[in-house]
Task: inverse folding
DNA sequence: CAGGATCCCGCTAGATACTG
DNA sequence: CAGTATCTAGCGGGATCCTG
């Protein structure tokens, strides 16, 4: 049935999966992408860092060490583990170039890029509304004495 | 300086906070909102459930038991804990009506509603792209033998 | 009904050390 | 450079019991 439009297919997919249901695979997928490191990795790979014109860097290849530097505080374990999971889920590609020493580049796939749009909004939201949240916490904590 | 537009203020906030930095408060905020239950709670409270016209239910008040029913599989502890954190951060309000038995309603604030837009995109993405991810996993696993 | 309070297990993040 | 391997402390999170 290739007669379905992509919009129809997406609507159908949404009917099949419902993250509100405990057993639904999309619940587990939601859990996986609702992760601090996933968010930051997607943001790093999807965003142009501005060093070469910040208009719209649709995708960006980064090396392992670049990522670990940009995601301050991430352990090698978490970085590797998260990258592997994202590769397995088809969100990014891992390309090994057999130089000496070896070079590994990570790059978003189209699928990863489609998620990046949403992920980026989350990260921006956190940065933009930090002040409001801090103020809210202060009044909440003061009230509870 | 109330001469700043809201767009300017947001841009400024984004400069002050950078979730890529380990010590930045926004990193911690990002971690908090990158959570399965947060996503589902925000989605539940922000979405109209379709029972009264699914065009655009901007906000929706729900009772504790309604939430626990809709978020299948959530424990009371996690539900209560997450709701408290979201209330503290100013994303939702908790209203107690002293009936017998007591009635408690949760409702998104404007701040919560602003995050809901982004959160909803994440949940929809997970449901819409589940098939692609599953297929990707299969080929990945098959390759690794 | 809407939680609060405890107990407790699992697992997983993070630190450390080693390698091709 | 780009990981892998191992260990452990800590806490996320579920189960259970209790209350206003």
Result:
């Amino acid at each position: 049935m290739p007669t379905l439009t992509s919009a129809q297919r997406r609507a159908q997919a949404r009917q099949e999966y419902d993250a509100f249901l405990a057993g639904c695979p999309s619940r587990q997928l939601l859990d996986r992408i609702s992760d601090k490191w996933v968010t930051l990795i997607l943001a790093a790979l999807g965003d142009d860092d501005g060093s070469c014109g910040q208009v719209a860097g649709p995708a960006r290849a980064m090396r392992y060490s670049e990522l670990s530097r940009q995601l301050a505080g991430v352990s090698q374990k978490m970085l590797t583990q998260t990258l592997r999971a994202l590769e397995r889920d088809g969100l990014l590609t891992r390309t090994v170039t057999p130089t000496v020493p070896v070079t590994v580049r990570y790059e978003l796939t189209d699928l990863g890029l489609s998620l990046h749009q949403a992920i980026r909004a989350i990260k921006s939201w956190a940065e933009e509304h930090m002040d409001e949240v801090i103020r809210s916490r202060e009044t909440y904590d003061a009230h509870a004495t």
